[in-house]
UniProtKB/TrEMBL annotation:
<dbReference type="InterPro" id="IPR021109">
    <property type="entry name" value="Peptidase_aspartic_dom_sf"/>
</dbReference>
<dbReference type="Pfam" id="PF05618">
    <property type="entry name" value="Zn_protease"/>
</dbReference>
<protein>
    <submittedName>
        <fullName>Uncharacterized conserved protein</fullName>
    </submittedName>
</protein>
<dbReference type="InterPro" id="IPR008503">
    <property type="entry name" value="Asp_endopeptidase"/>
</dbReference>
<feature type="domain" description="Retropepsin-like aspartic endopeptidase">
    <location>
        <begin position="9"/>
        <end position="146"/>
    </location>
</feature>
Length: 159
């Protein structure tokens, strides 16, 4: 069996932080079947800042029982049409922000979507896993522990 020393192992669920949005202590579910990552958001409103497209939204943190809300703003990267496993399509706003998982730190694109009926407010998709050089052991959870305070991103994007 091949092993790859440069890849970090994560579990099916992990603690993450999104320091660019000032969000920490988020539980994320790993979804290798999804290409793009998703952040639970509502009240999504596009606007312009200095002639550039931005988006304002309410980020929902915590669990279904103890939800906390934070107003956030981020540059708008694009709009993306997402097709669910049931065939429904939805157009979503896409932002890019730094993700911290364990001791790694790199930029990830997130679609903003309502996940109020879902247990996990954040999904990490395959593109984020590839960029972070991560492999998933679905038999494990919370392997990496809560992220340390984030460090600045290196030129390569991954710490």
């Amino acid at each position: 069996m091949k092993t790859f020393d440069h890849l970090a192992v994560i579990g099916l669920r992990e603690w993450i932080a999104l320091p660019g949005l000032g969000l920490a202590g988020l539980r994320a579910k790993i979804d290798t079947g999804a290409g793009t990552s998703t952040l639970h958001a509502s009240d999504i409103e596009p606007f312009e800042r200095d002639g550039q497209p931005w988006v304002r939204f309410t980020a929902h943190l915590g669990s279904l029982v103890q939800s906390r809300q934070r107003q956030r703003e981020a540059p708008l990267v694009s709009l993306k049409t997402i097709r669910s496993s049931t065939g429904h399509t939805q157009t979503r706003y896409v932002i890019r922000t730094d993700l911290v998982l364990g001791d790694r730190h790199w930029p990830v694109e997130f679609t903003l979507a309502c996940r109020k009926t879902m247990r996990y407010r954040v999904l990490l998709g395959a593109k984020a896993l590839i960029a972070g050089q991560l492999v998933v052991n679905p038999a494990l959870t919370y392997v990496q522990g809560k992220p340390l305070l984030p460090l600045p991103t290196t030129p390569s994007g991954v710490r």
